[in-house]
Design brief:
This protein is 33% helix and 32% strand. The protein is of the alpha+beta class. The protein has an 11-stranded antiparallel sheet with strand order 1-5-4-3-2-6-7-8-9-10-11. The radius of gyration is 27 Å and the shape is globular.
Length: 251
């Protein structure tokens, strides 16, 4: 009697496995047909690679939920652009992931990606070392701050023997209670002036808070640079002019 029960259970399991296999074959066939007619093995390999890459992305990355700011309570935005855009990033072991919906949270200094209508954070220290978003390149690196260094994302504005970096900055201002002659104000995110850094060759980053700090880094050519700034009517405080100065230095 026990043997009969075993055989019956085995037959049910076998039948279910056969049905799963048939369904899987049908699903794969439908997926391939949805890409149009497959004319060569290269097309199949391309589709397989894309699926494998997506699986690698899901399996390898430590993902943490993001608490999105409540727009009904907070004003402003912590994001460089709150809309997700297709981006790509390079990991520490030189893997590249492309066409990932990304956005940059400047306040928390993290890149977020979207999955199943959830915002998740890329682990920057191991994975998203170089991120390209809307044709802008960001690198995760150490940069100087008062009293030491900090790790974070800097946007690359000029690449060359002298590379110019920009640190975007957004601060959070807490809510203010109601006071005399003033209504209560919600908390808000506010963009403030960015910081700029230079790297000469493979050296360490130097901050350039003033035009003098910039010229001190190139003291041997400071007169030539000052002459160019004056002739071209460039202003150190204007980002596009600062880019022009560094491009001149790289010539």
């Amino acid at each position: 009697m026990l043997l009969q029960k075993f055989d019956f259970a085995f037959l049910i399991t076998l039948k279910m496995n056969i049905m799963k296999t048939i369904i899987l074959i049908v699903c794969i066939s439908a997926s391939i047909l949805s890409f149009g007619q497959v004319t060569d093995i290269g097309t199949i390999n391309m589709v397989t690679y894309d699926m494998r890459q997506l699986n690698d992305f899901r399996d390898e990355f430590r993902m943490k939920k993001v608490l999105d700011p409540d727009s009904a309570v907070l004003s402003g935005t912590p994001y460089l652009n709150p809309v997700y855009s297709p981006g790509q990033f390079v990991t520490g072991d030189n893997k590249t992931f492309v066409d990932i919906p990304l956005r940059y949270n400047v306040y928390s200094d993290n890149f977020e990606f979207e999955r199943a209508n959830e915002s998740l954070i890329l682990d920057p220290g191991k994975y998203a070392l170089r991120v390209t978003l809307n044709d802008d390149l960001f690198i995760y690196t150490a940069y100087p701050v008062p009293g030491g260094t900090r790790n974070g994302y800097l946007e690359v504005l000029v690449e060359g023997n002298v590379t110019l970096y920009k640190r975007h900055k957004i601060i959070y201002e807490p809510p203010k209670p109601e006071a005399a002659y003033q209504d209560a104000q919600p908390g808000r995110f506010r963009e403030v002036s960015p910081d700029y850094y230079l790297r000469i060759g493979e050296g360490e980053l130097s901050d350039i808070p003033t035009e003098k700090a910039l010229l001190d880094l190139f003291y041997e050519h400071s007169d030539e640079i000052k002459s160019h700034i004056k002739k071209a009517k460039l202003k150190f405080r204007k980002e596009e002019d600062l880019i022009g100065i560094i491009e001149f230095v790289n010539k």
